[in-house]
Amino acid sequence: MDYVHAKLRTNMAASTIEEYNAVKKTSEESETQHQGGPRVLADQPQSILELQRDLEDSNPVPVHSSHCPASNIPHPATNGDHDLPLRIKEGLRRHAKAVVVITCRHEGQRYAMAATAACELSLEPPSLLVCVNKSASIHSPLTKGADFCINILHSSHQTIARMCSGKVKGEARFEEGSWAEDEQYMPYLSDAQANFFCKLDGSFSYGTHEVFIGHIRSARTNGPVDPLVYVDGSYIPLGQA
Ligand SMILES: Cc1cc2nc3c(=O)[nH]c(=O)nc-3n(C[C@H](O)[C@H](O)[C@H](O)COP(=O)(O)O)c2cc1C
Predict the structure, then answer these.
(1) Helix, strand, coil shares of the chain as percentages rounded to 5?
(2) Rounded Cα–Cα distance for residues 16 and 68 (Å)
(3) Is 137 in the pocket of ligand 1 (CB under 6 A)?
(4) 169 CB near ligand 1 (under 6 Å)
(5) Fold of 93-234
(6) SS3 51
(7) Which residues does the annotated region (Disordered) include (predicted)?
(8) What pTM, to 2 d.p., does this model score?
(9) Going by C-beta distance under 8 Å and a sequence separation of 6 or more, which residues neighbour residue 75?
């Protein structure tokens, strides 16, 4: 059954439930023919990647998220796959990300949180998005409408990244680093690689997280390109990535 499950798990090409069921049926028929002995097929793919390529080649229909809204219909490819969270984590260890610190001010209180789930959205309108765990202290002010700043960290900002990811709490996160504030009292890191000052322009909840969309009202950059990168559980300068 492993081959069948692997094939189903990697069924990224099936864009509808019907296509999914068709692939499942074909796989099950194939499995039935090979019961009772070790599966040795000349054309059996050797890895998940090969399986995925195999399926993509045979059915190049892209998946659209509207087919499987995570809110109510379980994605067929994740059905019964208990190893999936582990494999996702392993996959994401290979996803090198620039580290940012999201900052905001709400009712006189400053907030800062290290994050990697920050992403460009569009230039028209100029926008970015960030994904914030609902358990993080910055989540509450953002849900109450606080504007925010995305500070792209420099390779020398490891200590700030650590402080803003739980090592210290609240205002103490601003004790290290060249923190400044703009005319609207928005805290920002003045020697960050870049600062994007955003007006909160939308949000939606997705499971444990909230996605916040920021309309960029101004941006500044600082020095040559040399960001702090997080990959495989470690901070590294881009030059070593
Ligand atoms: C490298 C790194 C990246 C992180 N990325 C995110 C992220 O994108 N979103 C998020 O909600 N938390 C992220 N976190 C975790 C938060 O930084 C951490 O939970 C938060 O600072 C806790 O804040 P609190 O003590 O104020 O609640 C990340 C942590 C690290 C070390």
Answers:
(1) 30, 30, 35
(2) 8
(3) yes
(4) yes
(5) Pnp Oxidase; Chain A (2.30.110)
(6) helix
(7) 58-81
(8) 0.72
(9) 68
